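Our platform keeps sequence and structure together, in a single record for each protein. Such a record has a labelled line for the sequence and another for the backbone structure tokens. This encoding replaces a full spatial description with a residue-level series of whole-number codes. Below, we set out a record of this kind in full and without editing:
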Amino acid sequence: MIAAAALVAIGCDHPDPRVLDRSDLKSALSLDEATAKTLGDADRESRAGHEEAAVDILKRTSEPAAKAAFDGASSVAARTAWGKKQKTELVALVTDRKNAIDEYEVALESHVDELVLASMNKQIEIERRARTLFTEVDHGVR
């Protein structure tokens, strides 16, 4: 949306839909990256033995960031088949990350090390998927 307005402003009446998809997807991915950063903050607190502070970060910053990421991903108006595929993957990613945040909260509140470890492993897998998706979007349509 923003990309289209910028291209029209500089005199390009018919911007390439692939470029627009890439720009919109990168904007939405940046919201997921912000969510991942908040999870890193919670992880640092958890590793320091401050589970209550970690849960506070999850509730106060991670959950709202995850909602913003979901809203951003859902609002992408993909124009190409490639863009639609990437949007579908992004929506699945941010949904899984939101669910992982909820599971991480429960695990931290339970004080069961195995649950915390399983939750962190799930986050690592989600982050791998996020890096792969970011790379695909960053390189654009081939």
Remarks:
- The CA atoms of residues 70 and 95 lie 7 Å apart.
- Helices lie at 2-9, 17-47, 51-75, 81-110, 113-139.
